[in-house]
Structure formats: structure tokens, C-alpha cells
């Protein structure tokens, strides 16, 4: 349905996106996963024809949408990372405004506005000013504005940033429904592993402007099929303890955050006795050690040497 081919975007000395390629098949949810600053927003801005790539092309239904974007724009909905609403208008007034931009009029526009308010769970909030909405309600209305023209493909750029867990869960379930009930094709960008793992059929992992891994969830996890993750929880951060662990040659990756140390090691390696030995020597208090099967977070740590949210 859509192919991005060798897309690059350079701003003076900055290479925001460096020759990425990805594709979306009709009816699937594809995740674009990466930390803040990875280049995800720039990539989807090029894919959705909002900005011109420095090089490369985007093909939608066989057409070059960089040169001829009209067909893509008619069938595409975009949910931007930044909330794009008019705070001094009501929810309905916002939807009517964005519906008219999509050339909807009269009875069709009225029906679409009512339908979208139902879809996003704001049917009883239509006459309220957006400035009085919670962050989660604004996010849902932001999604609604992208659904008015009933797009075939929806691009969502980190739609759950900065909202409460209840609104976040509602948005995730809405994405599922749009895909399962409407057959909508969705490109979903996030830096939350659990969201992408829950929603997506396939995943692209992006870092520093490059696609560093792609495939189904299981295919990506199989990158670490010969390794395991050991999570050590301590009472408080102990730099000497951490430095001793880092010197162990069997540890391929190590990440530390507050009182949690995460290490990737070969599957056959047994480290428990060594961990407790170092803890005794350095005065570190270990509250627990857990061995985990590989997760997407582990793969990211393995590929980049840093945790996703760093």
C-alpha cells in the first residue's frame, strides 16, 4: 500500500533521517519505535508529504507521492505529536472546522462529526470548550480530527505522550478498533515499547536517523535468541558495584537506572555467584535478581548500547 524508499532528510549539518526504507501492507498496524530524537517525526512528515525529502521517494498505491501527493492526502489521516486544536472553540466547532478543510459539507459533515465524537468517547462533551479539556481528552479529539474524512491509512505520531493511564488505554483500544473493525492501515510511532508490542503486527526500530531492526515481534526478539537478560535490583545506587560488573567480559550490554541494573549476557552464562561476590566486596545491597527472556527493550539495548528512553 505504501513504500518509503531510501528516505533522507538533512538540515545543514544535521542528518535527521539517513536513507530509511519501510513499507505498509493494507490492513496492518506497523510500529515505528525509537527514543526521542531518533528521527521518527521527520520520517513520518516525509511519508505524509508534509515536508520534501532530501532524497528518496514515497510510493502510495504505486504512485510517487513526493511528486504527486494528492491521492495520498485524500486517503491519509495524520495525528500529530503536538496537539493541533483551537482551545477557544468547542469540540464540535473544532471538528466542523477540520471537516470543512477536508471538503466535507452539510449533512455528511454533521453525520461524520457525530460519528467521530462517538468513536473517541466524547459524545457528551461536544459543546464544551477545548481549553477546559484534560490532556487525554485533547489527545482523543486530536485523533478525531484525523478521522473525519474516513481515511484508509492513519499515521499517529506518539499520540499518548503526557496523558493519564486511563486515556492512554482508551486511545490504544481505539487504535485496535479502527484496525479490526474498519480495516484501517496504521503507522504508529512511539517510544513506549509496551504500546508497540501490544498494537503492532510488524515493527521498525529507529535510532539516530537509521532503521536498526525490523520484522515481527518474534523476529526481532530472536536477535537475542542466544542471550538472556539479568535484572539486578539494589537498595541504592553503588558506583563501585556497577563498575565491577562493567568489567566482566561476558556482559555484552549493561544499562543502569537508579536502583536497577540490566545486563545482557550469553544464555549459558551463570552470574549469580559473581554478582553477590561483588555486592559483598562493595557493600551493595541486592534486593533481587531476575532472569528474563528477551524483550523489545532488550533488543534495543543490545543494538544501541542504551535504553530506549535515554
Automatic annotation (TrEMBL):
The keyword Cell inner membrane does not apply. It comes from the Bacteria. InterPro entries: AAA+_ATPase, ABC_transporter-like_ATP-bd, ABC_transporter-like_CS, P-loop_NTPase. Gene3D superfamilies: P-loop containing nucleotide triphosphate hydrolases (3.40.50.300). Residues 2-233 form the ABC transporter domain. Coiled coil: none annotated. One of its GO terms (molecular function) is ATP binding. The keyword Glycoprotein does not apply. This is ATP-binding cassette domain-containing protein. The lineage of its organism: Bacteria, Bacillati, Bacillota, Bacilli, Lactobacillales.
Amino acid at each position: 500500500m505504501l513504500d518509503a524508499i531510501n528516505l533522507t532528510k538533512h538540515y545543514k549539518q544535521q542528518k535527521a533521517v539517513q536513507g530509511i526504507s519501510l513499507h505498509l501492507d493494507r490492513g496492518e498496524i506497523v510500529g515505528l519505535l525509537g527514543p526521542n530524537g531518533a528521527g521518527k517525526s521527520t520520517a513520518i512528515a516525509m511519508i505524509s508529504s508534509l515536508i520534501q525529502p532530501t532524497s528518496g521517494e514515497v510510493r502510495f498505491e504505486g504512485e510517487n507521492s513526493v511528486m504527486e501527493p494528492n491521492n495520498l492526502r485524500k486517503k491519509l489521516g495524520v495525528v500529530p505529536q503536538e496537539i493541533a486544536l483551537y482551545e477557544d472553540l468547542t469540540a464540535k466547532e473544532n471538528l466542523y472546522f477540520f471537516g470543512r478543510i477536508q471538503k466535507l459539507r452539510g449533512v455528511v459533515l454533521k453525520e461524520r462529526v457525530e460519528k467521530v465524537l462517538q468513536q473517541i468517547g466524547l459524545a457528551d462533551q461536544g459543546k464544551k470548550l477545548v481549553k477546559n479539556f484534560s490532556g487525554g481528552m485533547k489527545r482523543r479529539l486530536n485523533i478525531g480530527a484525523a478521522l473525519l474524512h474516513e481515511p484508509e491509512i492513519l499515521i499517529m505520531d506518539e499520540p499518548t505522550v503526557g496523558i493519564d493511564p486511563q486515556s492512554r488505554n482508551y486511545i490504544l483500544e481505539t487504535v485496535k478498533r479502527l484496525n479490526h473493525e474498519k480495516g484501517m492501515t496504521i503507522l504508529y510511532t512511539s517510544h513506549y515499547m509496551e504500546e508497540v508490542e501490544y498494537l503492532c503486527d510488524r515493527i521498525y526500530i529507529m535510532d539516530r536517523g537509521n532503521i536498526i531492526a525490523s520484522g515481527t515481534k518474534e523476529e526481532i526478539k530472536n536477535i537475542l535468541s542466544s542471550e538472556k537478560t539479568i535484572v539486578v535490583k539494589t537498595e541504592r545506587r553503588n558506583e563501585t558495584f556497577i563498575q565491577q560488573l562493567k568489567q566482566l567480559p561476558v556482559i555484552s550490554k549493561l544499562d543502569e537506572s537508579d536502583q536497577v541494573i540490566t545486563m545482557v549476557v550469553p544464555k549459558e552464562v551463570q552470574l549469580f555467584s559473581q554478582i553477590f561476590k561483588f555486592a559483598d566486596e562493595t557493600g551493595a545491597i541486592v534486593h533481587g535478581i531476575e532472569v528474563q527472556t528477551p524483550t523489545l527493550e532488550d533488543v534495543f539495548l543490545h543494538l544501541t548500547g542504551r535504553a530506549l528512553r535515554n
